[in-house]
Every structure is written in C-alpha cells, then in structure tokens.
Amino acid sequence: MQVRHILQDKGRDIIGMAESATLAEAARILAQHHVGAVVVQDSGGALAGIFSERDLVRALADDGALALGRSIAAYMSRQVTTCHESDTVEALMEMMTRGRFRHVPVLDERQYLAGMISIGDVVKTRIAETLREANSLRDYISAAV
User: Fold this and answer.
1) Residue 133: which residues within 8 A CB-CB, separation 6 or more?
2) 39-43, 89-93, 136-140: which range is least confident on average?
3) All domains of the chain, ordered by start, with CATH?
4) The model's pTM
5) What string of H, E and C letters represents the secondary structure of the chain?
6) Nearest to 31 by CA among 15, 50, 49
C-alpha cells in the first residue's frame, strides 16, 4: 500500500501557518483542529518547517510564558523529513520510527504539499490491512474445508 492510499481515505487537507504566527496562535490551531502538528509555510506557500506539540512543550520549557508571544519560526523544526505519495506505508513507518517523529508532510510528484500523515493514520491503515488479510485467509480456509 502507498501513502497516496492513506490520503485518499483521510483527505488532503493541510493545516498550515505562516512563520510569523505566534506560539499562542499555533497552540489554538493545534487544539481547535485536534492535530499534533502544523505545516509552516513561507510567504509563497512553500514548506518552511513544521511545528509540533513537542516544539510547543520545548519552547515553554525553555522560555516559559514569554514563548507564547514569540513567532513559531523561532521554535519550529526547519529540517523537515517529507515523504512522497508513491512511498510505501512500510517505508513510511520505518522512517517515522527511525526519526522518532509522528507527523510527515507528503509531497506530490511536482514536490508540492499534498497532505500530512500522522503515525495514527499509519497505524489505522496497517490495522485495516491486517484485518483484511486475516479475513481473506479465513475465507480461503473455510472454502477449502
């Protein structure tokens, strides 16, 4: 199964913010949309970074409440690992596990943002895939008896 199949099921909506947005604004967006990370985009809409709940926690731990008024550009992850729609779910799982991150922006064949995948999306897909395989095997065995 490929990443594009996850996006077909979950949708391609991307929650993005400008680099100039404050941590307080980012916290509101994360809570409002029930997500763990947002894509940070430059003025042209290109991927500039990613800002996650972990980044928020680190900012508050380092700078306290003052961090809430500062821009997310000061705290976001600029080295963003991305995947492509054609990548396999297995490869994505390995990348996320190795990199110890839970959100990956997805790029299309033109290198434009096509969506965002979370580890929850991957787990949900793998569970559904495993259940389908188990049911197919059960049906096969039942038909053979």
Assistant:
1) none
2) 136-140
3) 3-144 (3.10.580.10)
4) 0.84
5) CEHHHHHHHHCCCCCEEECCCEHHHHHHHHHHHCCCEEEEECCCCCEEEEEEHHHHHHHHHHHHHHHHHCEHHHCCECCCCCEECCCEHHHHHHHHHHHCCCEEEEECCCCCEEEEEEHHHHHHHHHHHHHHHHHHHHHHHHHHC
6) 15
